[in-house]
Amino acid sequence: MSLKICSVYFEGKYTPEYVEKLYNGLKRHCSLPFEFICYSDNPNVKADVIIPLKHHSGIKKHWYKLCYFSPLFANQNPEDEIIIMDIDQIIVNNIDDMIGYPVTDNELVSYNKWWGGKPRLNGGFLKFKSGQLKVIWDDFMKDPETWQLKYFKKGIVHYKYYGEQNFIDWMCEFHNIKLTLMPPEWVCKITNDEEEDRQNNINYIKKFNKDYMILDKPHNDIKIVHFANPNADIHTSKYSWIKDYWI
Amino acid sequence: MRIICVNTGDKFGQWYVDNLKYMIDNYSGLKYDNFEVITEEKHKGVFNKLQMFDKFRDGENLYFDLDICIYNKVPNLVREKLTVLKAWWRDRDHTSFNSSIISWTGDQSHIYNTFIKDPMMWQEKYNKGIDQMLEENFVIANYDKVCYSIKNNQYNEKDKDYSIVLFNQSQYLMEPGWSGWWSNYFLSR
Fold this sequence. Notes:
The structure holds 2 protein chains of 2 kinds.
Chain A: E1 3-9, H1 16-29, E2 35-40, E3 49-52, E4 81-85, E5 89-91, H2 96-99, E6 107-110, E7 125-129, H3 134-142, H4 144-153, H5 164-174, E8 178-181, E9 187-189, H6 194-208, E10 224-226, H7 242-245
Parallel strand pairs in A: 1-2, 1-4, 2-3, 6-8, 9-10
Antiparallel strand pairs in A: 4-7, 5-10, 6-7
Chain B: E1 2-6, H1 14-28, E2 34-38, H2 51-55, E3 60-64, E4 68-70, E5 83-86, E6 97-105, H3 109-117, H4 119-125, H5 130-137, E7 141-142, E8 148-149, E9 164-166
Parallel strand pairs in B: 1-2, 1-3, 5-7, 8-9
Antiparallel strand pairs in B: 3-6, 4-9, 5-6
C-alpha cells in the first residue's frame, strides 16, 4: 500500500508556486511516506510525478480532480490510499493525523466545514481507497457537460463550472458512500474579507473553546488553512503570518 | 493495400499516428503497401474523414480511427464493397453506424462529391458526426462483430475473442496518466 497525495494545477487563477509551496509544506509537516502527484497543464510545477493535462477533453477547471477517483489514473494500485488536495491551502502544523486518517472501503474522508454552508464535505481534502469510489468518476463521465453546469444553472454555486464538491457530496448520498469528516478544529478558512475572517475567528473560539483561531499565527491545533473562497488568493493576502508558513 | 488514418485538429497528435502504425506493424498481422495520413484540415472536425474517399480512388483501402487499440492478429477487414462497423455494443441512438473502421476497394469518391456540393448543409444537418450521414444517404455494408468497445469494459481484462478495442468517447484512457491492459500494447511516449 502506498499513499498518493494528488493535486490539479491549471493556468489561470494560480501560479506554479502554489503547487510548490503545498509540496514543501507537506514535506515539512508530514512524516508519513507519500508520493505527491500533480495533474498539470504546466510542466514546471514541483511534484514527485507530473501528469500532463491536455485541455481538449471537455472537462473544466476543478472537475479534473475527479480523474483521481478512477483507479486507472495516476498509476494507482489496489489498496493505495488516495488523497486529493486543493492547492490553495497552507499547511501550518504537523498533519500526520490528517494524512494518516484511517479510511475503509466505500468511505470518503474530508474536512468538517464548521463555518457552515453546503455541501457537507470540502473538496480541499478528499481521502479514499483506490478504486473504491470509482463510481464517482464513472457517473460523471456519463454526462460531464450536464454535471459541470448543473449547480451553476440551479444557482447553488455562483461561478460557471464550479460545483464539483456538490457533485461528490451528491454521489456519496446517492451511492451510500460513508462520509467521514475529520475533527473540525484541524482546519480553518480564510477569505481575505476581513469582516468574514474576524467572524470566523470568533466562531472558532466559541465552538472549540480555544483562545483564538489566528492571531499573529494560526492556533497550534490548526493543521491547514484553506483559502476557500473564489476571491481569496494566498499570494495577494495581507496577513503577515503567511510569509512564515507559505514557503 | 493502403492503410489510412486521419489526424486533423488538436484532438490527437503525432503520437496517436505513430502508435497506430506501431500496433499495426507489431500486432495486427496486416500486410500493406502504404500507410497514409490525412492531415489537411479542410472541413469541420470529423468531416475531414470524408477526404479519404476523394484522395484514394483505387485499390484496397482500410481506414482506422486513431483512438483504438490493436492487440492481436486482426481478421480480414479488407472489403470489396464499402463497409463500416455496426455499433453492436450500444443502443442504436441516432445511428447504428460507427466509422472507426472503414474499408472499400476502388472508387467511392461519389461520397465526397456529394458532401462537397454543400459542406455547410451536411455539417449542420449531421452535427453529431458522419456516421449518421453515411447511414442515411449511402449504400454501405456493415462488418460482423470484428471489434468491441472499451465502454463499460475498462475495468475488465481484454476480450480474447477480439483483436481490436475502440475507445470512442473514452479516448481519455489513451492519454498520459491513464493506464490499463491496453497500455502494454501502445508505443512508449
